[in-house]
């Protein structure tokens, strides 16, 4: 019998081997520990050439019964969710499983009252408040498909996502607190709604008390709650019914709406959550925790926003499916000062802490070492996700936060994979600085050379690919299965291609080396070059542009834009033009995609077929001009010197 929790290296080896020898038997046993309305007829059917993947065929379930109802009997009074607001003086809120269940059922009834039916898409554009978690689960309760859009995105990014999925209802708030700022979410949403014909109703949460006016077909969240009760039977879903859509940037074209389904996603996020973080529900507490506010078990905190996959899988679904106590934080690491994360860890006696390298670097850079001013003795596991973590940041995290005694799980995965793919299991398998280390049970990675041949043996370096399906793999891109096939399954036959490069050390540990496509990761956010270039090119005097990433102390990468103008003499005020360009980017994508540097040039290096040679621009931006490679075959080699002479 496969045990749900892996407790030793030996058990990891055994589980991994079992998952390779007989994947169906392996996942079947794991899946049996959940509540199903009807058992599956077949564990797995797959064909990467189509591509088509079906897990737990004909199985029926509702993920919210697994995240909420099934805990009510034994842990109904334990804390499910801790909410830490932006302003520390506002005070935290605690929701037991009972309370969360009741709130979810109530809001599910609100959705029903607003004509939301199984299969309808609901867009959620909200700040990091408990109602966001409630809204996500309420959708799942009634079988509506949630599409959460990060509340830092602009009106045009929001409307593009609403329209792509033809969402019926929008959930938003009057605004959101972020440090000293308030994001005017309702105003942004109203702007987006001007071009969103499919939205029938907008439900608005009052959070910041902004003076907002409800327009036609807009209602207040609190008014809606007055007329519903908390009795809402869970909709019976097929294992392969859509659970949610979440957008991620590609290297070209519009954002991709990754589709995740109910059964496999639930099984995989729950299994990986428990094992990677070694979350413990059963340990009695020995440090006098206040039982009325918290629970006698671990407190887990992931600092991500629910607008990203990390929040979906490891704030909401994975932890709740395990009956865990999960903390969500509304604010930013720098408010009221850079000690805030540690203040929260101390206050809530956080045991597992999961954040991103960009946050670690920002904290490590402060003159004061705030981590020393707080009691972090409850920390047992530290986690990192989003981009490769550099050694300096890893060491700082280990020394100052973990005090050298907390395992660090460096978790490699993607929006598309739904859950963690390569990572150590805290304290069970060894971590190694800057290495994600070993594949989780069920994950079969390989390294390929450029023509797709598998590189055997260790050590090795190549392109990362996965050669067997795992339960939470995205099933398609919403409305564009052909694109799904092209992007992920066409580069290498019969393999899933994530777009990353990797190396493997002599012991088989993986280290992710970074993207091999035109996606740039800025502060952990996945940004495609094409949409940013499209935004810049909308400026009336811009002819052409190329974006590359360059190393940045805190963000990991920052964006460098090379821009040619229609008439180089048409502006003397380059500074004003830079501001206008960044304004366009902010409007079309959001402030996270703003360029740190913008260099105007008379030409961009191009191949004879007209493709911009980003490789050269990348090297110039990173000041690595010693080895530019052969530029003589370019269409316009002369522009390279000009660009080097004027580099910023
Ligand atoms: C890309 C996916 C998974 C949630 C956050 C990002 C990079 C992610 C790591 C890591 C090195 C990492 C990869 C990946 N990435 N985690 N631990 N080490 N690189 O999700 O926005 O879909 O981005 O983030 O390049 O492909 P995402």
From TrEMBL:
A Pfam family found in this protein is: AMP-binding_C
What EC identifiers does the entry list? 6.2.1.1
**GO molecular function list:** acetate-CoA ligase activity; AMP binding; ATP binding
Per the record's keyword annotation, is Nucleotide-binding included, yes or no? Answer: yes
Into which EC class is this enzyme placed? Answer: ligase
Identify the residues that the record assigns to the AMP-binding enzyme C-terminal domain, covering every copy: 532-611
Q: From its record, what is one biological process in GO terms?
A: acetyl-CoA biosynthetic process from acetate
Question: The Acetyl-coenzyme A synthetase N-terminal domain covers which part of the protein?
Answer: 12-67
Which superkingdom, per the lineage?
Bacteria
Keywords assigned? Acetylation, ATP-binding, Ligase, Nucleotide-binding
Q: What is this protein called?
A: Acetate--CoA ligase
Species, as recorded: Olleya aquimaris
